[in-house]
Amino acid sequence: MKKLAVIYHSAHGHTEHIAKHVTEGAQSMPDTEVHLVKAEELTSMPNILLEFDGFLLGSPTYLGGVSGTFKNFMDSTGGLWRTQQLKGKLAAGFTVSSLPAGDKQSTLISLFTFCMQHGMLWIGNPILPEQHRGVPYDEAANRLGSWSGLMAQAGHSAAADSFVVGDIKTARMFGRNFAETAHRISNEPRN
Fold first, then answer.
1. pLDDT value at position 157?
2. Can you give the CATH number for the domain in which 101 is found?
3. Which residues have C-beta within 8 Å of that of residue 155, sequence separation ≥ 6?
4. Is residue 93 part of a domain?
5. Between the N and C ends of the chain, which has fewer C-beta atoms within 10 Å?
6. Contact present, 94 and 25 (Cβ < 8 Å)
7. How much is the pLDDT for 100?
């Protein structure tokens, strides 16, 4: 059994909507327990992270980086960093902004750097963009072409659940791929 956490911050519900689909994808893998956790709930008790085999980290992209709330969560793990207690755990990242680019790559790099400092193993996004195979752009998986993590786009001031089909499909595939990888890679030391 693998125990995973989808940790996210969402001020307006968009990142939470994607987080739920990432969770569904990860839960579709047998023998996988997935917890959906708000980043702000972990800030005062980061040691809970030790219970999990891997983390799917999600933040909206605000001004080219993670939200302040998500950054507070990241900063709260300083004690775990000093003792490298998260070393070897799996991690991946996802983000949402209102524009197709929206500097989402900067957010993913911030999440990646955070995980590398903790000694975690980063799992990217191996999903090939489907529009190259003739799937209509809004229905295509990985339509935004991100391999470092999952990117999704929510229109400016749009309802929290107003994503194109392709982004929802990608979120589920991303979660499933992470769970499959967690089962392939053991976090336990070998003799």
1. 83
2. 3.40.50.360
3. 98, 162
4. yes
5. C
6. no
7. 87
Other CB atoms within a 10 A radius of the CB of residue 148 amount to 16
What are the per-10-residue average pLDDT scores of the chain (191 residues)? 98 96 98 98 97 98 96 98 97 95 94 98 97 95 97 89 95 98 74 48
What percent of the chain is helix, strand and coil (3-state, nearest 5)?
40, 20, 40
Q: 191: which 2 tokens?
A: 């003799």
Does residue 189 belong to any structural domain of this protein? no
| Beta strand 32-38 pairing with 2-8 | parallel
Decide if 190 is inside a domain: no
Number of domains in the chain: 1
DSSP state string for 114-174: HHHHTT-EE----PPPGGGGT--GGG-TTTT--SSSEEEE--TT--TT---HHHHHHHHHH
Residue 94 tokens, joined: 């996802």
Local structure of 18: helix, strand or coil: helix
User: Whole-angstrom Cα distance, residue 140 to residue 28?
Assistant: 20
Does residue 191 lie within any of the structural domains?
A: no
Coil/strand/helix, residue 10: coil
Residue 65 corresponds to which amino acid? Answer: G
Domain that holds residue 54: 2-184
Amino acid letter at 115? C
Tell me how far CA of residue 169 lies from CA of 15, 58, 126, in angstroms. 15, 16, 14
Distance CA 37, CA 21 (A): 13
- Residue pair 32/1 in contact by the 8 Å Cβ criterion: yes
